[in-house]
Amino acid sequence: MNQPSPENLEKMWKYARKFAQKTGTFFSPVEGVTEAVVTGLASHMDELGKPLCPCNFYPDKQAESRNRRWLCACDEMQKYKYCHCLLYVREDGMPITEHLPEGHEGREMYGEQADPAPHLGRAMRQVADQGIQDWHSRPEDSQPE
Ligand code: SF4
């Protein structure tokens, strides 16, 4: 991978530090994880002009970058405080999974990991909570066995 421009690298480090602070999350204690993700975000800034999540495969990056879903901080982070790139994690390095809906791959992979600062972050929490309420209020015959 080409090194991103110093401007975008600095911009993304600044953004990531601020977002972690604002949401009560931490950078991974595993060496190299944070650097790799921030570098990937900065490269997407160079390429697309948007901080598209670097941990997914996209058939069409340009098209995806026009949606907000996977722009950092992505919808999953804003709704559930879950970062599958492990950029924003707990102090012990585990991703937060407690707000994820049942059956989400993050829960399957990491089990239930509590959010140590549940009052912070989750700007789209209402969307997520509404989604969960809708799920539970569906007629029984429309729910999976
Ligand atoms: S998973 Fe979401 S919050 Fe984490 S780095 Fe990717 S876009 Fe950002």
Please outline what is shown here.
The protein has 6 helices and no strands. The protein is mostly helical.
Task: Give me the secondary-structure topology.
Layout: H1 6-23, H2 33-48, H3 61-65, H4 75-80, H5 105-110, H6 125-136
Helix pairs in contact: 1-2
The structure holds iron/sulfur cluster (SF4).
Task: Tell me the span between the first and last alpha carbons.
Answer: 45 Å
Please name the fourth-level CATH homologous superfamily.
Answer: Ferredoxin thioredoxin reductase catalytic beta subunit
- Distinct helical segment count: 6
List the helices and strands in order. HHHHHH
Roughly how many Å is the radius of gyration? 16 Å
CATH architecture level-2 label: Alpha-Beta Complex
The helix/strand class is mainly alpha
The CATH C-level name is: Alpha Beta
Beta-strand content:
under 5%
Low-confidence stretches: 138-145
The outline comes out as: globular
Note the main sheet: none
Total discrete domains:
1
Query: Overall mean pLDDT score?
Result: 90
In which range does the helix fraction lie?
Answer: 40-55%
The count of β-strands is 0
Q: Could you please say which CATH topology applies here? A: Ferredoxin Thioredoxin Reductase
